[in-house]
Amino acid sequence: MSQVLLEMNNIKKSFGAAAVLKDVHFALKKGEVHALVGGNGAGKSTLMKIMTGVYTLDEGEILIEGQVQQIDDPMDAKKAGIAMIFQELSLVQTMTVAENIFLGEELKKGIFRDVEAMNRRAREVLEELGLDVDPTTPVNQLSVGMSQMIEIAKAISKNARILVLDEPTASLSTSETAHLFKIIRELKEKGVSMVYISHRMNEILDIADAITILRDGELIVSDAIENMDLEKIIFYMVGGKSSQKKFEWVERAYDAEGEDLLRLEHLKVDEKIKDISFSVKKGEILGLAGLMGSGRTEILETLFAIRTKKGGTVWLDGRKVDCRHPWEAVQAGFALVPEDRRKQGLVLEHSVRDNAILPIVQQVVKGKTPTIDDKAINEIVNRDVEKFNIVTSSINKRIGLLSGGNQQKVVISKWLNTNPKIMMLDEPTAGVDIGAKSEIIHIIRKFADQGNGVILVSSEFTEMLAVCDRIITLFDGRITGVIPRKDIKEEEELEHAVQESGE
Ligand SMILES: Nc1ncnc2c1ncn2[C@@H]1O[C@H](COP(=O)(O)OP(=O)(O)OP(=O)(O)O)[C@@H](O)[C@H]1O
């Protein structure tokens, strides 16, 4: 039995009247990967923010190696060797890898920065982690996956012995995830302990040694991973509430030979994406599969007029459309659920209600001298909160205070209210819990069943295969294949199609 490194006992935390953590215990052993699991809003991030000194606890205690440890702010956590690897990466994009690793604690020779020594030491840390990257490379030239590993290298170079990884694979490709897992296993060997927050159950079963499950701020179970399986985890998470968990593919009835709802002809975005043509039928769910940088997001952003179309023609429902501004795109019948919900999808300082209503303000204006119909708004938003199971104490709560998954549900529901003809979703279920994931998939299907079209981008192939009728593979701005879903037998086939499409 390896020794317990950190313990959190009887942790209680409330925000106003809402008790978010109710007497929670958490114990992390040396050299283990401990999964922290629970539905959206269960209290996972709050518990970790207490551990990393972002929030202070109301009641309870934290012990490290059996000694009570006061963690009142992030500096205390850092001194205790605890580091959080952020989902939204905190590296300075214009600086080099080495400069980032030593940011704020530069090595000096006299009064000058010792660039050579920093590069040398950074190289050692990178080599130790098996990262094949030159320390003098500017961070903005790295992939998201590599940037995340640099964050880990940075923490390790500062002698962190506890790492908190919050949805670390949310924007990683399959091969980047494999690389991250390799590093996690190496760190374990070195005795580093890790808390792993994720909604991706297959990853948890693969990488974790132990698991703690929270539900509505309460500790439900904490056990070794070998005593768990998918069914049990889901049972503990949802508390026996029946909810459809499996997203199996169902062959949908739509006219594959029928009319095009959307047609792109020779779309040009930039030097990389020069000639993209495809169509979406009425009632069809089309997937765009490709590695990071293949152009998936750029195509969606161009259709939504966030990016300027440099050439080509777009037809929607028999009409040529040439949108210059996202509002024109909304009016034409496009909706986009963006990849980065915090920056692009929401106004974080505003309430759930105001965010939900933003794209449909015209619909809730009444009277000759236009006034906002508060009753109508409240009805719409309360209905969506219920329909999507959005955990919030009130529709007037600042949306930035909601858990990540619940924020995403607001983004999706608000766009559905615009009655779009084409719904474009970029990684729609990143950070969304398993219950809500199947709800979202159900909603996407229902939307398409009404004769609308969907374009889905997801790095989770399981999800793509569960939802799409047809999948287009992209590589480096080019379409490399169009595969009907029914022709794909195994997930690996899609993985290969995406990886090999560049060759
Ligand atoms: N600063 C805050 N003020 C008010 N409420 C908060 C604050 N931080 C978190 N909460 C609330 O606490 C609850 C738990 O949130 P938390 O972020 O810990 O959940 P989570 O388990 O990490 O969820 P997710 O999987 O969606 O990220 C949520 O209902 C959230 O709205």
Key features?
single chain; 503 residues; alpha/beta; Rossmann fold; 3 domains; six-stranded mixed beta sheet; 17 helices; binds adenosine-5'-triphosphate
SSE layout and pairing:
Layout: E1 4-15, E2 18-29, E3 33-37, H1 44-51, E4 59-64, E5 67-68, H2 74-79, E6 82-85, H3 97-101, E7 108-109, E8 112-113, H4 115-128, H5 144-157, E9 162-166, H6 174-189, E10 193-197, H7 201-207, E11 210-215, E12 218-224, H8 230-238, E13 260-268, E14 276-281, E15 285-290, H9 296-303, E16 311-316, E17 319-321, H10 326-332, E18 334-337, H11 341-345, H12 352-357, E19 365-366, E20 371-372, H13 374-387, H14 404-416, E21 422-426, H15 434-449, E22 453-457, H16 461-467, E23 470-475, E24 478-484, H17 491-500
Parallel strand pairs: 3-10, 3-11, 6-9, 9-10, 15-22, 15-23, 18-21, 21-22
Antiparallel strand pairs: 1-2, 1-4, 4-5, 7-8, 11-12, 13-14, 13-16, 16-17, 19-20, 23-24
The protein binds adenosine-5'-triphosphate.
Residues 15, 20, 38, 40-46, 391, 401-406, 431, 433 line the site of adenosine-5'-triphosphate (ATP).
